[in-house]
Amino acid sequence: TVPFALASPSAGAVTRVSVESPLRAQEQEEQRREFEALWGGRDMATESGEDASEDTCIICLTQPRECVLLCCGHVCCCFGCYEALPSHTCPICRSPIDRVVPLYQA
């Protein structure tokens, strides 16, 4: 999106307008397709009918949270999203991730 301002000489008002760059839109569409290809449209279904938003990965929003990031201790993502992180920093607090421990919920 490329923001720019339009000025109306008669009214003296400035209107901000955003124009979607065709290149940027194409890049976003490619990223969306790549993401869907990776995850294959998997959805997390809750059998009990409870609101599972607390237990879903904060990155993909579909898979359950499956790992503990150490040293900060945040439980925030599934293992697939952890592996896809561009840098080994916690997505919540940005502290370095020393190791990852699987989370087993009963």
Write the layout of secondary structure elements.
Elements: E1 2-7, E2 14-19, H1 22-39, E3 67-70, E4 74-77, H2 79-84, E5 99-102
Antiparallel strand pairs: 1-2, 3-4, 3-5
**What is the CATH fold-level name?**
Herpes Virus-1
Q: Decide which structural class fits the backbone.
A: alpha+beta
Distance between the termini: 45 Å
Tell me the β content: 15-25%
Q: Give the overall shape.
A: globular
The biggest beta sheet is recorded as: 3 strands, antiparallel
| Domain module tally | 1
Provide the CATH superfamily. Answer: Zinc/RING finger domain, C3HC4 (zinc finger)
Overall strand count: 5
CATH architecture: 2-Layer Sandwich
Count of alpha/pi helices: 2
Secondary-structure element sequence? Answer: EEHEEHE
Radius of gyration: 20 Å
The low-confidence runs, each spanning 5 or more residues with pLDDT under 50, are: 43-50
Mean pLDDT: 76
Could you walk me through the main structural features you see in this protein, from its secondary elements to its overall organization?
- The protein has 106 residues and is an alpha+beta fold.
- The chain has a single domain, classed as Zinc/RING finger domain, C3HC4 (zinc finger) (Herpes Virus-1).
- It has two helices and five strands; from the N terminus they run ββαββαβ.
- It has helices at residues 22-39, 79-84, and strands at residues 2-7, 14-19, 67-70, 74-77, 99-102.
- A three-stranded antiparallel β-sheet has the order 4-3-5.
- 7% of the residues are buried.
- It comes from Chelydra serpentina (Snapping turtle).
- Keywords: Metal-binding, Zinc, Zinc-finger.
